[in-house]
Amino acid sequence: MLEPISISMASLNFPALLPMAILAVGALGIICIDLMVKGLTKSFYTMVTVLLIILDFGAVVGYNGSIRGFFDVMLVDGIAQIAQIIILVASAFFVPLSLGQRQFKEYEMAEYYALFLFMIVGFQFMVASDNLILIFLGLETSSLALYTLIALHNRNKAFEAAIKYFTMGALAAGFYALSALIFYALTGSVEIHQIEEVLIQRDFEPLLGILAGTVFMLGAIGFKISLVPFHTWTPDVYEGSSSPLAGYMSIVPKIAGFVVAMRLFEMLVLSGVVWLEYILYGIVVLTMTVSNLTALVQEDVKRMLAFSSIAHAGSMMAAILIGTTQANTALFLYWTLFMFTNLGAFTLLWAVRHEKNLWDERYQHPFSKFSGMVKIMPTTATIMGVFMFALAGMPPFSVFWGKLYLISAAVNSQFIGLAIIIVVNSAIAVYYYMKLVIYMFLKEPVNNDASIFATNTSTPLKVIVGFATMMTLFAIVFVEPLLNMITKYVVASGF
After folding, report:
1. How many domains does the chain have?
2. Collapsed DSSP state (helix, strand, coil) of residue 320
3. SS (H, E, C) 98-167
4. DSSP summary character for residue 413
5. Which of 162-176, 319-333, 351-365 is predicted least confidently?
6. By CB atoms within 10 Å of each CB, which of 154, 196, 197, 231 scores lowest?
7. Is residue 237 part of a domain?
8. Is 473 inside any structural domain?
């Protein structure tokens, strides 16, 4: 007779699941409220969603329990905590963007807010685990919710974008499952730390099997964070999505992908697998260079920002390639600073959105739309100019400090060639960012009617843009305390 398995409540460590439980229960609560009470406004759902995110934030920051939890599949280390903080802060800034002046169908639906919360839960599971199965569940939960959120925008291009994203996402999910299967077959485990131990004991043999598992995982993660050559979906999906959701996709799904890549690939690189370092090096250089060169010829600002976000993702993969504590700290510092600036830029696109393509038959945000904007809407043009200077990495704006720290990490780790490539690509990026500035400040307006640029502007949007501008302009004030906080979390994780 088999003896019953005894599991102590302490070993389950349920508080590790509390952040995810808050949002999951909250999402179900929103659906139930909608079933019972009809006619609730988007302001109500926005307020409830932000409140749940704040409660989740408190649970993440206030957690001081064991690193492991829930049958040891949860991993709540410093990396998981700082990644969740970035995810929740970006999410809290995204939700109020639904309160624009124009009426959009998706923002009136309770399901939109419930799906958004489930998406965050998926991202949190991805970053708070080193179990390949739980990471996969988080990946699919977030992805399925995101596909639906894109389609809810109820435009032909939105449907097309959702289908493209779903198709590519299904392929990436297959790659991930196959990679996890290979690593399990090789090591008998789906825990990344146990996989590392077994591979080190076997001196990374059989090499062909490990290579296959790594390549498939690179394909899956490369899709999630838009690495070349897995980036082809990005500009089309961003163009078809609403501007706020495109800005959100450029930040949050990628930080989740970076954490998974950090846990798996840094383990392999630092264990002396030279061929993996060469593969990652090639992907990093290709991602930065190809995306920057492609951005040069874009005619639409949103597509230009899409390729821009791919280039920035390439810089972040450079940090994972370097693999030191300074590089990992640089990754989170860079992405935090980039988050405010990029969300601010996409928010401005949302504010000046017009239901008709008045400037171009193909694009909604062509460069010509912004011609002479400084004469029509000087404040908007100036703020967008600030965001462009910051994204280009010009001092003293926010992204400059993240890029400087990343280059410093590369030089200190003897990746001199990589540091030079980052600098050269930053110089290339200046051209297409300044292209928009030239249109806004040095060209004559195509249309002098300021009202058509302000059809979606509202007080919440102005507040969010204002805060993003302050964070971009005065980053030098809080870079050092932010750096100290991030370093503490990274060091605590042993990265």
Report:
1. 1
2. helix
3. HCCCCCCHHHHCHHHHHHHHHHHHHHHHHHCECEHHHHHHHHHHHHHHHHHHHHCCCCHHHHHHHHHHHH
4. T
5. 351-365
6. 154
7. yes
8. yes
